Amino acid sequence: MDYFPEDLLGAHSKLIMDPVHGGIPLFPHEVAILDHPLFQRLRNICQNDILSLVFPGATHSRFLHSIGVMHVGERIFLSMVKSYLESRRYKAKVSTTQEQFFAIDYFNKVIRLACLLHDCGHSSFSHQFTKTSKIKDMMESSGLFQKLWAGIDTQDLYDATPTIIEHEHYSSRCAHQLLTDTGVQASGIELIDVLAIMETTSATTSAVFNKHAEYFWQFITGSKEVEWKTSTTIPQLVAELLSSIISGEVDADRADYMLRDGFHSSVTIGGFNLDHLLSNLRFGWDPQTPWLGLAITSKGLSALEDFVYSRNQMYRNVYGHKTALGFDWLLREAINEVLEENDISDYVEQCLTDLDEFRHLTDNYFWECFRHHARKHPDSYSYCIINRVKLKHIDTQYDLPPDQIERRKQALADQLKLDKTAVVSCTMNAKFSKIREDFDQMKVLVKDAITHKHRLKLIPEVSTFFNKFTDGTITHFYLKPKRLG
Fold first, then answer.
1. HD/PDEase domain: from which residue to which, for each copy (predicted)?
2. Angle at Cα 113 formed by Cα 278 and Cα 237, nearest 5°?
3. 265-281: per-residue pLDDT in tens?
């Protein structure tokens, strides 16, 4: 792989102007991926399905979100590298070797690609598509994985054939196609290394990755020796570290969508100080465990607390908004409705097994299906979506057990003197934070006041703030529009 110090300094070939992050530079191989039809389809998939029916500005696409995640992923990685460079120069008086810079450059480009491609397998209306009952049945059909990967040996990517396919599996498949078609290996990046740090795969990193991992380990620890007795290898630890930047408790994906969704929804509750958070992130390592992951300084805990609190508020007030979830329910029913037509159902099934057709499975396809169906059937779910006919909200329950939902519907119907079928519900799983007593994916770097030495501690040992945030559910109840009977 050719190494250019200018790459780490931002000497890229193109610049995309983003309303959230400003100018985002691109490498030539990234431009080739963006220009590919399979990636361009993301322009026609909204980041938040039909949230714009409630927050009119939320029309931003998966395309720009993916580029934003790439940018934030690089910022997370390089901010930690910068902190180590400063420490080595001014405290340890140790210079960084050429091989270590090669490793940093390689991992930076791998992270950027994995972040860019992390959501490239999303279909129409993002998460609502895979939550639709008829679509779930299609994606759980026997042999779907084999059809999707027909002609490609997946032994290096998956230990076992997945029985249930999620959108992350499509992201891995699309990423494989995009990286192959654009010849990313000509840029010195091994395709398998990008897929290895993405979700769902169990790929083993390449010899190139493993070589760089050894030098990167020396950069972080200042040692060539391995001090643990387990079977865990340095490349495994480095791969897990890079994966946590893409998909972890504090990752590039969440950082971008919170800022982006808050910005386009014109709400302030999704805001947090990204610069403050990044300036306090460090590479944390414990040679005895062994553990290698993200660490945050004690003074940066307030930024992490702000990040978690902002995400909590976005779920409760934007993603879980009563009107928004009502439209999500109508959307899923409208998709089920048009899939009753054999030609539509057959085509969607074809799209789910053929990437040449999959690129046409965007929001636009279903909007046209809804319009066509609504003209013929004014008493349909499609009509409600096209004409923004809202469900009337009548109740909200938090953390209501699933077996109590039907009982609550009946109680509401009795109060309103209506048939139970007139009452519908929509539940959102609100995953606010995984930081609990035994959470060790991220740790706090604490400085001893007497010895001035740093040591790692579990976050709950330092802060009780996160105890108040637990995963839960938000269930809204509605009345069907009269036109639906």
1. 58-267
2. 65
3. 998 776 789 999 999 99
